[in-house]
Amino acid sequence: MNDKERNTPCNLQYKGVSINGSEENELPLCMENKVRVPIHLKLTLTIKEAAEYSNIGINKIDTLLKQPNCPFVLFVGTRKLVKRREFEEYIRRELII
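and the corresponding C-alpha cells:
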C-alpha cells in the first residue's frame, strides 16, 4: 500500500529544503501518525537507544554484543538489537564492564 492509497501524503525535507511544498517546521503526515514508545517500555532496543538508556558508550555496547553467548543480543537478520530486560539484569549483576 502506498501513501496515496492510505491518503497520507508524505512531504519530506532534505537539508532544510522542503520537498512537495511542506512547511519547514511541519511534520510530514506519514510521521505524524507514528506513536513513539518510551524506551523503558520497549522489549528490544537499538544500540543507540541502549547507549542512551544505560549511559554506556555505543562502542562498548557493540563490543559486549559481539561476545560469544551474550545474554542480551537479538539478531534480526544482520541487525543487532538489545533485549532490554536481559541488558538491565546484566548491568545489575556486573561490577565492571
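(Above: one complete record from the training split.) The mean pLDDT is 82.
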